[in-house]
């Protein structure tokens, strides 16, 4: 006699995706043939969650979907669905309307769940009532993974190790230290201290030489300048995938736009697009340091400014 095909169902906001979610999903997957993950979203509620968090920017539905997709991209039997909860009364109300919305998604994809998996004891009775299938509790007391999304939202950097690898790049803080002779080593020093990535830009010296030139010989063409900026963007993209909370570099795109404008007396669409898409959380310029400061004083000042990003 063939065993029944087991189909699992998991619900969550994944705001953000963390190790507790991954444990729930992986343990559930070990008990079923296929698993369907319902990513719940509702714009007003999600904004309120963000406003109460210590996140510097709000994860969108597309971000949360991507985190799940990247984490399980090689798992053909794990499927992710968007559950738009707009117009449904907020939890713990609205179970009937909410379950009807879930059932419409299940019917659309011809999904017949046999098990629901959750870490929330208070939801078991309603799951059983509205979905007529068994409910499995996993790590309800958070003994195996002692964390919750609420705790991460309140202290993302203290709880960094619990944030899923796919989600961590979203929360990386970008720091540019644009220095003079006394501070030019600061980005690499701080990257070493924080055990993270230093994004080198070996071409910045050429750009600064052109800025300093009285006659603007323009040894760099505008296309050279754009290639330098694009290379910098590519290196940043690579760095954030494996950084530890922060990345450090010697230039930001606002400054590159200003440099380009000073040299060529015009704007560049590509550079402006990079400026819009690569937000830096902290830019320290040489003008932020007292000219009489020692290297140690600059180091201590920059360290305090960086540390404030992680509170």
Report on the architecture of this protein.
The chain is an alpha/beta fold and 311 residues long. It has helices spanning 19-29, 43-52, 61-71, 95-108, 124-131, 149-154, 168-171, 186-193, 204-212, 222-240, 253-264, 269-277, 295-307, and strands at residues 7-12, 34-41, 78-84, 115-118, 134-137, 173-178, 197-199, 246-249, 282-285. The longest helix has 19 residues, at 222-240. The mean pLDDT is 92.
Key terms for this structure?
single chain, 311 residues, alpha/beta, five-stranded parallel β-sheet, four-stranded parallel β-sheet, 13 helices, elongated
- Class from secondary-structure proportions: alpha/beta
- The side-by-side strand order for the widest beta sheet comes to 3-2-1-4-5
Helical amount? 40-55%
Q: N-to-C SSE series?
A: EHEHHEHEHEHHEHEHHEHHEH
Task: Determine the strand fraction and express it as a percent band.
Answer: 5-15%
What is the rounded distance between the termini?
Answer: 59 Å
The biggest sheet, with number of strands, parallel, antiparallel or mixed sense and barrel status, is: 5 strands, parallel
Helix count from the secondary structure assignment: 13
* Rg, nearest Å: 25 Å
How many beta-strand runs? 9
Q: State the low-pLDDT regions, or none.
A: none
**What is the mean pLDDT?**
92
């Amino acid at each position: 006699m063939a065993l029944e095909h087991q189909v699992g169902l998991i619900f969550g906001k994944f705001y953000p995706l963390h190790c507790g979610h991954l444990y729930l999903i992986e343990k559930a997957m070990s008990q079923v043939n296929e698993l369907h993950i319902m990513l719940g979203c509702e714009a007003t509620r999600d904004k309120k969650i963000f406003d109460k968090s210590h996140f510097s920017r709000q994860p969108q539905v597309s971000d949360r979907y991507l985190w799940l997709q990247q984490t399980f991209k090689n798992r053909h039997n794990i499927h992710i669905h968007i559950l738009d909860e707009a117009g449904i009364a907020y939890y713990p109300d609205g179970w009937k309307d909410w379950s009807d919305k879930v059932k419409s998604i299940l019917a659309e994809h011809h999904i017949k769940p046999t098990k629901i998996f959750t870490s929330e004891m208070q939801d078991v009775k309603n799951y059983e009532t509205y979905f007529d299938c068994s409910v499995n509790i996993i790590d309800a007391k958070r003994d195996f993974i002692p964390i919750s999304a609420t705790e991460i939202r309140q202290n993302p950097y203290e709880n960094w190790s619990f944030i899923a690898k796919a989600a961590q790049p979203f929360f990386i803080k970008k720091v540019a230290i644009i220095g003079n002779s006394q501070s030019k080593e600061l980005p690499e020093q701080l990257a070493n201290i924080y055990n993270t990535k230093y994004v080198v830009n070996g071409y910045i010296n050429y750009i600064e030489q052109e800025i300093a030139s009285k006659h603007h010989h323009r040894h760099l063409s505008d296309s050279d300048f754009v290639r330098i900026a694009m290379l910098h963007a590519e290196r940043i993209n690579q760095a954030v995938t494996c950084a530890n909370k922060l990345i450090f570099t010697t230039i930001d795109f606002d400054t590159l736009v200003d440099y380009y404008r000073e040299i060529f007396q015009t704007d560049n669409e590509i550079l402006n697009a990079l400026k819009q898409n690569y937000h830096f959380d902290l830019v320290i310029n040489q003008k932020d340091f007292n000219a009489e400061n020692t290297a140690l004083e600059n180091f201590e000042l920059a360290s305090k400014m960086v540390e404030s990003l992680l509170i």
